[in-house]
Each structure stands twice: as structure tokens, then as C-alpha cells.
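Risk register update: the risk of archive-format incompatibility is retired. Evidence:
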Amino acid sequence: MTPLLWLTQAVLITTPRGETTVPVTLERGNAAVGAPRLAAPLGLTLALDGSRVTVALSGTAFVFQLGAPFVRAGGVVYALVGEPYVARDTVFLPLNWLADCVPRALGGRYRWEPGISGASGVDLGGGGRLVELPVAAAVTATPPPVLSPAAPAAAGASASPSPPLSPPPAPAAPNPLTGLRHSHRVVIDPGHGGADPGNPGRHFPAHLVEKDITLAIGRLLRAELVRRGIGAVLTRSTDTLIDLTDRGAFCKADCDLFVSIHVNAMPESRRGDQASGVETYFLSDAKTEDQERVAQMENEAISFETGGSSVATGPLGYILRDLQLNEYLRESAQLAQLVQDSVARIHPGGNHGVQQAGFMVLTTARRPAILVETGFATNRTDAGFLASSLGQHKIASAIADGIVAYLLELERKLAVAAPTRGR
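Archived output:
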């Protein structure tokens, strides 16, 4: 029997209705709590639909994907420390969601107090306490005002000069591995997953399909970036399906760039197995039939989706996507070129260059975004390279090299612009 690795640590739920102690488990490596134990003290409800977990709390729906370290609430995506999972017919949620995401998403309704013992004297082992605040306190919790230099002084008040802007922080010493001086965060998207296998991998061994290759490369890329001191997260770390439009949404305010990993394929034809090599896409209108073919092939993943999307639709959605496209078009093209050059140097199939097409997965990223077609599953040489441990490591390392080159250029531009902004 598998031991239930319960910790002596626990969390306390304090509400106007009383206190409840909830144990914490570390059986998957990260602190988690069983969702059913939160139902009574918080009035939480849970619905499990395939790999999608929807938790309703205080009128807000939190949408999780099993195996994915993210949660969506009210159109905002929050990163998690750990992933939701199911064990013994119970859904377990990362403790980080309770301690960090709930207070942030439901500002003024809940407060997290780390390492607090309850009023009943329960020793929480440093676990902490979630406090439900009275409704009146929640109403008075407002965000701090945003002051504008042009805002007029209140009637009868003397206008005082605005305090001088603080100088930007001095850059840190360069990272010995990369030369980067600032912290960065990259979202890595292993394409397909779950019910969506991607392309069938005509020449992949042992029944592998595209979703297996992209996940393997994505995990290696994350490890390689972390080794170089760059923050990196995966849209999925297991065989689970994430909606196309939700993937790019993981890359917002605290993200520098978005990289989606895929495997190419040619249609069945007499010469279909001859195409080989790597190509890297950024989001723009397709200019060739082949670019349109690749985008259509990858966009077909939407047929596997069963849930709703958080992305704006209609005229507003088109405007938002158009703004995103124009804002980061140049940066995405530069990122694509640097990654393409790096991967092409180690790829046995040749260099297909930088391409552009309308990939749905890139439309919701709020930062520079690219999609790497790492090779052709319909070509024997490419397929063998992609399915091998050596090939996957080489591709991941080469993509990381391209990312570092882009971030170094980004830091150079920011350093040049800083004196101008400080004047």
C-alpha cells in the first residue's frame, strides 16, 4: 500500500463560523491539500470534467488543468507551485493556490498568515492560516490610487511637487553562464497533449506521437533554462490537454517570451517523406500555401477542446489580437530568427528558415511569441533524431541558446533606453 505522506504541517481555515485544521500532503513533491477538506469550512464546490477542474469559491470560478501548474480566475492566469492531481479518488490542489492565488484573486475577502497557530492552540507546524474576512472589511479593501502628475490638487489644498522618480536599480553582476544581468521568465508550451496526439509520427518508434516528443523537449528546455538562471514554466508537464487560446494567456505581465514546441509533418504523397529540417514561426498572415498548411494542421487541435475559452471574441477580440500582433511583431520575428539560426546549426535535416502564419496558440500571448517546428515526423532521419535522447537534448539546448541571445539583446536595448527615460 502506498503511504499517505501526510506532513505534521497543517493549515488552519479561520472563518466567522469557526476554525478547521486541514492536513497538508507532500506525496507528489509539492505541498497540496485535498479539495474535499476545504468544502465545509469555505463553502467550496468542485467539478471534475476530464482533466479540467473547476473550483467555485466566494462567487469566483478557479479553473485548473490536471498536471498543469496554472489556474485561471476571472480571465487572469496565475502560476502555481506544484500541479493539481487526483489520487485515491480525491482532487488535490497546490497549497500555493490557497496561500497566494486565493487572496490575490479575491482581494479583501481572504488573508493568508504564514506560520500562525490557531486560537484553539493547534500547532500548525509553520503551515499558516487562511482567514476569511468579514464582508464589511472586504468592501473597504480597495487598490491603492494611481497618481497622475497632471492630476489637479484638491480644492483648498496646496499643490506639492511630486517626489523625484527613483533611479532604476543598478544591474546585477552578469550571470557567468549567460551574461544576463536581470531576471527573466519564459513560458514553454509543449504542443498538443491528452486527447490530442498531434501528428501520428509516421516514422517515430515505439508508438510515439507528436505530443510525446514536444513534452520531452519542453521538459528538457525548461531544465536547461533553469540551469542557466532563467525562470521557466511549462503550460503542461504531463499528458494533458490545454486549450489553444489558454496556452498563450500564461504569458502576460511577468513573462518575457513564449515558445511553443511542435513537430511538422507532410501529407501522404509520393515525395512526402523527403521534406526535412527545422522552421520557426512568428504570428502574422501566412504568405505561402505551405505556411497556411502548417498553421491549419496545428490549429486543428481546437477540435479536441471541450471547454469554453477565456479569450475575448467578436470585434473586441479582433482588436485585442491585432494590437498584440502589431506590438510584438518585430520582437517575435527577431526571437524566431535567433532560435532558428541556433537550432539549424545542430539539426540534421537542414534549415527551413523563419516563417509566419496565423497560429491560434500565439494569438493570446502578451509578449514576443514563436512556434518551433522541430522537424518532420514524416522523414526518417528527422524522426529518428527527434525520438532520440541525444536529439532532444541538442534541440532543447539550441533553443535555449537562441533565447539567451534574444534576452541579451533585450537587456542591451533597455540599457540604452534607460538614460533617455531618466531625463
